[in-house]
Amino acid sequence: MRQSILSNNESPLIACEHVSCTYGNSPVLHDVYLNINRREFVGIVGPSGSGKTTLLKAIIGSQPVAHGSITVQPELTIGYVPQIETVDWYFPVTVEEVIVMTRSKTQWWPRITTKERTAVREVLEKLGIADVAHRHIRELSGGQQQRVFLARAMFCQPDILVLDEPTAGVDVRTRHEILHLLADLHADGLTILLTTHDLNGLAAHLPRLVCFNKTILADGSPREVLTSKVLEATYGAPMEVLEHGGMPIVIDHGRVAMRGEGK
Amino acid sequence: MILALDIFEPYGFQFFRNGLVVATIAGALCGLLGVFVILRGMSYIGHGLSHAVFGGAAASAVMKVNYFLGAGIWGIVSGLLIARVARRRVIGADAAIGVVTTASFALGLALMNRYGQASKSIEAVLFGSVLGVKVVDIYAVSLVALLGLAVVVLGYRKLLFSTFDRDVAQVSNVRVSLVEAVLLAMISLTILVTMRVIGTLLISALLVIPAASARMTTNSFSRMLWISPIIGAVTCFVGMNLSYHLDTSASATIILLDAFVFVVVYAIAGTRNRAKMASLGHL
After folding, report:
1. pLDDT digits (tens, 9 = 90+) for B220-237
2. Is A74 in CB contact (< 8 Å) with chain B?
3. What residues 89-118 of chain A have any CB closer than 8 A to a CB of chain B?
4. Chain A nearest CA to B257, separation (Å)
5. What is the DSSP letter of A185?
6. ipTM of the complex
7. Contact criterion met (CB < 8 Å) for A80 and B160
8. Residue A135's closest CA among B220, B209, B22, B102?
9. Which residues of A touch B219 (CB under 8 A)?
């Protein structure tokens, strides 16, 4: 159905072929073909309930696949950043503890070693939150919360970062910060895969977009993908695409019309 | 002088010394595992398992099988049944626990009514009895406590990771189901070796209250793992002594003491939080 944008000889880091997943009897994913290559920065967009999170979970291996196959390169380390709403912020852990717990495979000794402490400091510094290491996770701002979980994913030096809605529930400034941070990490050579419902704030800035609603409806650069036809097929509502400063801007007419019709 | 003699009076009895040792170790053990019970929202499983084990205890008494063997196997089977029933998503884990464990409990009661010698032994199992404690109970509870300590120390990071963030732990190659099975097995073993002193009905409180009190004193997981067993052990020790002098049931006294500690901590933590909020308001 689709070809990867980067045509190199290396096989993809992740290859989904003919993938379907079900909850009970209802299909959540249907016949998904998706390749993620090294050094790509890919955004999956689609309405809520379209199965974006399920697709990510199938890729990272926490959601069983009913049909098809997902081939992940051997020895691939995935850094996963869950939606921050799913985190139990009342859990009694400090930022440092959250980050170090990912080393549970190689380290069993309960106490955090000096070496680990330094490594935590380094990754926190890189993400600009060096001062929060000893804070309880509930004492963080929205942007800091997102960065802490990014730091945890970065801590095991992953080949690919997988983020579920990294800008959900954050303010405009934080969204900008996260976007720049991810762009920097990508520039440093990291492969990134994320989901988002934020078309203008996030998706339009990414090099490659996948429009998704239970299956892949379009795959390409924002310019190729963000068209009224594709978006209507994805969201099931009419949308218009304008251009501003060389970037596509999506106007959601469906919502405006509904407001206009109200009495 | 007379008071001091009074305090040491129960120590003259072998049964009391045995009971005191078992209760104190059991308190520490329940406090330790209780941390996972409350952070994972497993309180109801603890409650259910103790009821299931009661069925096993009754059945093994009737069939004259060793208590630890009979009730242990019964507990494991109940656990597997719960997992099996809960797999039907329409039912839900809490309902599955309700069905399996109360049925097991009822079966235990019926067996004891029909074949048991006296209603007295039922009361002993329901509410625990210091008199029934034997030296083998000391060995059993010590063994399980050492095992529990080993599991928590050796598996600390995996336990913490899979408790805090199951999905990501699984992605990071932690065998989450194995961790959960080990934890459930440890809780079952704890109930098994503690039940004869504390009793079926009150044992789940010992798994929940000290850990809940500890949670309110700290925001650190590792510190909670220290504080909770200490609260459990101290309340069991003091509660056992008090129960002798007040002539009240040992388990009831222990749980009341735990509840009292909880109320005090709750009140102090509430005041401290309000003070903290007030100071934040000035920033």
Report:
1. 899 999 999 999 999 999
2. no
3. 91-94, 97-98, 100-105, 107-110
4. 25
5. H
6. 0.82
7. no
8. B220
9. 92-94, 136, 138
Is the Cβ–Cβ distance between A64 and A216 less than 8 Å? no
DSSP labels for A66-108?
SEEEEEE-TT--EEEE--GGGS-TTSS-BHHHHHHGGGGTT--
Nearest CA to A251 out of A222, A233, A227, A234 is that of A227
Chain B residues in contact with chain A using a Cβ-Cβ cutoff of 8 Å: 39, 89, 153-158, 160-161, 163-165, 167-174, 215, 218-222, 224
**For residues B135-151, average pLDDT:** 94
User: Which of A22, A59, A60, A101 would best serve as a mutation to test chain B binding (most B beta carbons within 10 A)?
Assistant: A101
Q: Name the closest residue on chain A to residue B151, using Cα atoms.
A: A108
What pLDDT is recorded for position B2?
Answer: 55
- Out of A61, A93, A102, the one facing B221 most closely (by C-beta) is A93
B93-115 vs B119-127: helix axis angle to the nearest 10?
Answer: 150
Distance CA A70, CA B39 (A): 34
In this complex, how many residue pairs, one in chain A and one in chain B, have their CB atoms less than 8 Å apart? 78
Chain B residues whose CB is inside 8 A of the A84 CB are none
Q: Which two tokens stand for residue B230?
A: 């200490």
Neighbours of B281 (CB within 10 A): 7
The answer on pLDDT for B126 being more than 60 is yes
**SS3 assignment for chain B:** CHHHHHHHHHHHCHHHHHHHHHHHHHHHHHHHHHHHHHHCCCHHHHHHHHHHHHHHHHHHHHCCCCHHHHHHHHHHHHHHHHHHHHCCCCCCHHHHHHHHHHHHHHHHHHHHHHHCCCHHHHHHHHHCCCCCCCHHHHHHHHHHHHHHHHHHHHCHHHHHHHHHCHHHHHHCCCCHHHHHHHHHHHHHHHHHHHHHHHCCCCHHHHHHHHHHHHHHHCCCHHHHHHHHHHHHHHHHHHHHHHHHHHCCCHHHHHHHHHHHHHHHHHHHHHHHHHHHHHHHHCC
